[in-house]
């Protein structure tokens, strides 16, 4: 292995690093490390890495398959087991379960919170956790607690389960992850730890993550939040995703949450829940970009620049008569972003419209929606009522969510044929 056995590698710095095979093709990204705690103060053995491969599936890569670790990448032999990673009872997730634990230094009795751990390779070529980075619990004179790096053998506290474990340092390690990546990390954590992390996220971040999780994880997390907090998070979700989630809850719970939500947000969700799930109405979002005909091109471009918009929603601007909230006034036409980019910013958006676009009825089936998007080469299309009032928009990603199998988030993608095509089925996980 090319990394030096005398150099410690801090675990939190590995989060999100790319993992490559010997040919230089990326296999995936590191999401966590798997260790086994040992009695008698022995240093925990690091068994391997939890790696998210293409298709958002987490697999286990044994440390015996890791040939190089440095600050920017990890290289493996490419021979790994493609079965989904499932944590065993004797295993501990280094980032997910060790960070933020309260421990004590045996000699001094000083207490601190774990913000990182260091691993290194020993003579028998095993990887072990050798040191623990601590932040003192006490804060004096308003200052942040001091930090120390302590040898593993000098620490007490890892063997005792905690009633509640903190989240600060784990969240810091995962802070820059996209919602879909953080969702994968949460999915692989034990239920208790998953609930702690979810509770620590702010409403907007948690809403983004929930939209990327399987339904059973969504229901579990929402059920542990308490009704007031759950309603706040549902308000931050896109109405179509919130409607899908609420539909999975017991009717009494669903009604309680709808009553607690902002009335306008709840009205959108109720409207979406009134449609059959596998129809245009059941898939659509009620929050596309909607403007009046006297808005300028500059106004339209400012709206589609919003970071929270998906690319498919940002591709079209829907121009309608007032009112502008669905169900709107009559749909006049749509403005394609490519056309908007070619027009002077001061021009009116009404002069750049495609008025030939046909709206979908809310009862249109999946097949009809797919045929419509394919026929007109669209990534988004309006959904209208009998009076041509805009009810919402259905996007190609909404369509794919419903066309793919229910467990598609847990199924590996075969599109990245290079790296996955060379992955074998060997494992040294003991």
UniProtKB/TrEMBL annotation:
<dbReference type="InterPro" id="IPR011033">
    <property type="entry name" value="PRC_barrel-like_sf"/>
</dbReference>
<dbReference type="Pfam" id="PF00571">
    <property type="entry name" value="CBS"/>
</dbReference>
<dbReference type="InterPro" id="IPR006668">
    <property type="entry name" value="Mg_transptr_MgtE_intracell_dom"/>
</dbReference>
<feature type="domain" description="CBS">
    <location>
        <begin position="353"/>
        <end position="411"/>
    </location>
</feature>
<dbReference type="GO" id="GO:0015095">
    <property type="term" value="F:magnesium ion transmembrane transporter activity"/>
</dbReference>
<dbReference type="InterPro" id="IPR006669">
    <property type="entry name" value="MgtE_transporter"/>
</dbReference>
<dbReference type="InterPro" id="IPR046342">
    <property type="entry name" value="CBS_dom_sf"/>
</dbReference>
<keyword id="KW-0129">CBS domain</keyword>
<dbReference type="InterPro" id="IPR058838">
    <property type="entry name" value="SH3_actinomycetes"/>
</dbReference>
<feature type="domain" description="CBS">
    <location>
        <begin position="284"/>
        <end position="352"/>
    </location>
</feature>
<dbReference type="InterPro" id="IPR038076">
    <property type="entry name" value="MgtE_N_sf"/>
</dbReference>
<dbReference type="Pfam" id="PF03448">
    <property type="entry name" value="MgtE_N"/>
</dbReference>
<protein>
    <submittedName>
        <fullName>CBS domain-containing protein</fullName>
    </submittedName>
</protein>
<dbReference type="Pfam" id="PF26205">
    <property type="entry name" value="SH3_actinomycetes"/>
</dbReference>
<dbReference type="GO" id="GO:0016020">
    <property type="term" value="C:membrane"/>
</dbReference>
<dbReference type="InterPro" id="IPR000644">
    <property type="entry name" value="CBS_dom"/>
</dbReference>
<feature type="region of interest" description="Disordered">
    <location>
        <begin position="410"/>
        <end position="430"/>
    </location>
</feature>
């Amino acid at each position: 292995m090319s990394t030096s056995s005398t150099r410690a590698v801090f675990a939190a710095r590995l989060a999100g690093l790319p993992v490559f095979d010997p040919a230089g093709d990326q296999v995936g990204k590191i999401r966590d490390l798997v260790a086994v705690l040992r009695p008698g103060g022995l240093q925990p053995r690091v068994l391997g890495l939890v790696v998210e491969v293409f298709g958002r599936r987490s697999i286990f890569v044994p440390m015996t398959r890791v040939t190089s670790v440095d600050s920017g990448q990890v290289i493996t032999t490419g021979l790994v087991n493609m079965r989904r990673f499932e944590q065993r009872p004797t295993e501990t997730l280094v980032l997910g379960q060790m960070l933020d634990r309260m421990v004590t230094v045996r000699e001094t009795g000083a207490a601190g919170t774990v913000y990182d751990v260091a691993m290194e390779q020993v003579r028998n070529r095993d990887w072990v956790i050798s040191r623990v980075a601590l932040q003192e619990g006490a804060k004096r004179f308003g200052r942040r607690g001091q930090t120390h790096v302590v040898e593993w053998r000098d620490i007490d506290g890892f063997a005792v389960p905690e009633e509640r474990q903190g989240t600060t340092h784990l969240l810091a390690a995962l802070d820059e992850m996209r919602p879909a990546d953080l969702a994968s990390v949460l999915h692989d954590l034990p239920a208790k730890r998953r609930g702690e992390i979810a509770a620590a996220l702010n409403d907007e971040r948690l809403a983004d993550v929930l939209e990327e999780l399987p339904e059973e994880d969504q229901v579990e997390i929402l059920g542990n939040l308490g009704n007031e907090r759950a309603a706040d998070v549902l308000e931050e979700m896109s109405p179509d995703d919130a409607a899908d989630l609420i539909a999975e809850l017991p009717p009494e719970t669903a009604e309680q949450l709808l009553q607690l939500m902002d009335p306008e947000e709840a009205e959108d969700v109720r409207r979406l829940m009134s449609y059959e799930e596998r129809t245009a109405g059941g898939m659509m979002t009620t929050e596309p970009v909607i403007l009046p005909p006297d808005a300028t091109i500059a106004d339209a471009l400012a709206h589609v620049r919003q970071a929270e918009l998906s690319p498919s929603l940002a591709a079209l601007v829907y121009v309608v008569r007032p009112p502008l909230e669905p169900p709107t006034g009559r749909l006049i036409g749509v403005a394609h972003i490519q056309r908007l980019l070619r027009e002077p910013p001061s021009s009116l958006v009404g002069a750049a419209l495609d008025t030939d676009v046909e709206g979908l009825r809310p009862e249109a089936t999946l097949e009809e929606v797919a045929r419509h998007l394919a026929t007109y080469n669209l990534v988004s299309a309006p959904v209208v009522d009998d009076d041509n009032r805009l009810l919402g928009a259905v996007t190609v990603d909404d369509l794919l969510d419903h066309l793919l199998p229910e467990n598609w988030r847990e199924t590996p993608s075969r599109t990245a044929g290079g790296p996955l095509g060379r992955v074998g089925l060997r494992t040294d996980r003991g």
